[in-house]
Write a structure and sequence with these properties.
Layout: H1 11-17, H2 21-36, H3 44-58, H4 70-83, H5 85-117, H6 119-133, H7 141-148, H8 152-176, H9 180-188, H10 193-227, H11 236-245, H12 249-277
Helix pairs in contact: 4-12, 5-6, 5-8, 5-10, 5-11, 7-8, 8-10, 9-10, 10-12, 11-12
């Protein structure tokens, strides 16, 4: 039979039971790691900046004619939402962005895949594509207007051109970076060429392809902001230009914030697709 001692511990025994500095540090590091893995932790800084912005606006630290308070921008958002104008502008911008991304992304992925698999195709086309890539696509706006006019075709072409090169370059590098030993192993096991490309080459290139996808999404919104200032009749860029004419600074800032939120949403969806698709990859295994 055992007994539990009720005598108070000596000071030496209490110090021995306390966790050491190293143990506390490891515990805090594990806790910080768990918090950092949660999606909401990334929104703490933007929320803190918004609160600081509102405080400075309320106390006169930021003048309203320089930068309206978040509450004023929220009021403008609600006003445009109730009128239905905001939904129409967001829909027009999203349609242009997605259509240009689909065209430019499909062409870039196809050419990157072909040039990565074929030495002949790469020798014929890659030098020309790399020269064109070094020309800023937004510098082509005057030429694009001459080609397509000021209609939707010009805006979609600029977006497609902007997203083409990030996807092309990263797809090409991803295919070229596939481990040759894996390809040779697939051949030893008797894989046909189509099966080898589908089961070995393409999965091996996916991490680089997703890098290009996320970069292209940022270029897509950046290009669209500029493209929608070309005599547009709807869209977020048009809304911002109209607000500038009437000195509606709250609507101008609202347009910029909506662009930022749409870009964040697109990037979050790409990251989600990346995690779901690359669960087999060591760098993504076990991530939520």
């Amino acid at each position: 039979m055992s007994f539990i001692s009720t005598e108070p511990l000596s000071p030496e025994a209490r110090r021995a039971r306390r966790p050491g500095p190293g143990t506390r540090g490891r515990t805090l590091a594990r806790l910080a790691g768990r918090l950092a893995g949660r999606g909401w932790i990334g929104w703490l800084l933007p929320v803190a900046l918004l609160l600081l912005w509102e405080l400075l606006s309320a106390t006169g630290g930021i003048r309203a004619n320089v930068l309206p308070a978040p509450s004023a921008i929220l009021a403008a958002f609600w006003r445009l939402l109730l009128s239905g104008d905001l939904a129409g502008h967001v829909a027009a911008s999203t349609q242009r962005a997605l259509l240009g991304f689909a065209i430019g992304g499909a062409i870039g992925f196809s050419l990157g895949l072909v040039n990565g698999l074929s030495r002949l195709a790469r020798d014929v086309t890659d030098t020309t594509l790399q020269m064109v890539r070094n020309v800023p696509h937004l510098a082509l706006i005057p030429l694009v207007i001459l080609w397509f006019g000021i209609g939707e075709e010009a805006k979609i072409f600029l977006v497609a051109l902007g997203v083409f090169f990030p996807i092309y370059v990263n797809t090409l590098l991803g295919v070229q970076g596939v481990d040759p030993q894996l390809v040779e192993m697939g051949r030893i096991y008797g894989m046909r060429r189509a099966t080898l490309y589908r089961r070995v080459v393409l999965p091996g290139a996916l991490p680089a392809i997703f890098t290009g996808l996320r970069y292209a999404l940022g270029i897509m919104w950046l290009t669209l902001i500029v493209a929608e200032t070309i005599s547009a009749s709807e869209g977020l860029g048009y809304m911002a230009m109209q607000a500038r004419e009437f000195l509606q600074i709250d609507v101008v800032v609202l347009s910029i914030l909506i662009y930022a939120l749409l870009g964040k949403l697109a990037d979050s969806l790409a990251r989600l697709l990346e995690r779901r698709t690359l669960q087999w990859h060591p760098s993504f295994r076990g991530k939520d």
